[in-house]
Design a protein that fits this description.
The protein is mainly alpha-helical and about 190 residues long. The N and C termini lie far apart (about 80 Å). It is built from 8 helices and no strands.
Length: about 190
């Protein structure tokens, strides 16, 4: 049976003719698809899809080349479309991973920053009253030592001693957090 007869029989619903074409080309087409896709399972899926489409469109297809060329061209185009689709998926996947990574870092920084702020606030609250007042005036309100001294009616030297004392106590209280505080301060915008 020549190719034109096979195509004619398939067009009329001849399952035996279709099976003959399937048996003649299936393995070769899978090998060809695998050379493009590098995935045996996906290659079989592509070739099976081509044969299903071939069977379903049997009454309307118009083949101008040989049946073999037609099937190879169909496999070739389908594989190229899958490769193109795969590359687009990969780009979106990488973009998605990158965005999630940034969001995780922002969330982590927010949580870590919040935890650090809480620990620092608790450590400041543990300072002796006069030391705490001087420290808050200096670090939270931004007053100079002279301004603090004038406001509290003490000498600038006394303010300096209270600040030194406060920093020593805070260093001890926040000992476990010092590396994190340094990293947070260094990388915070």
């Amino acid at each position: 049976m020549d190719e034109k007869e096979l195509i004619s029989k398939i067009a009329k619903g001849g399952e035996d003719a279709f099976e003959a074409v399937f048996r003649a080309y299936y393995a070769q087409l899978c090998t060809y698809a695998n050379s493009l896709l590098k995935d045996a399972n996906e290659s079989e899926e592509v070739v099976q899809g081509i044969f299903i489409a071939f069977w379903e469109g049997r009454s309307t297809f118009d083949i101008h080349t040989s049946l073999k060329s037609y099937l190879y061209r169909a496999v070739h185009n389908t594989c190229l479309n899958r490769i193109k689709h795969y590359k687009v998926r990969q780009v979106y996947s990488e973009e998605y991973k990158h965005q999630n990574s940034e969001m995780e870092n922002v969330t982590e920084d927010a949580i870590y920053g919040s935890e650090l702020k809480h620990q620092i606030a608790m450590a400041i609250e543990k300072l002796p009253p006069q030391c705490q007042t001087v420290f808050k005036l200096s670090r939270q309100q931004g007053l100079s030592y002279a301004e603090i001294a004038e406001k509290l009616g003490v000498s600038a030297k006394a303010v300096d001693k209270q600040i030194v004392r406060a920093l020593r106590i805070l260093r001890e209280e926040l000992h476990d957090y010092l590396p994190a505080i340094l990293i947070f301060i260094l990388f915070k915008n």
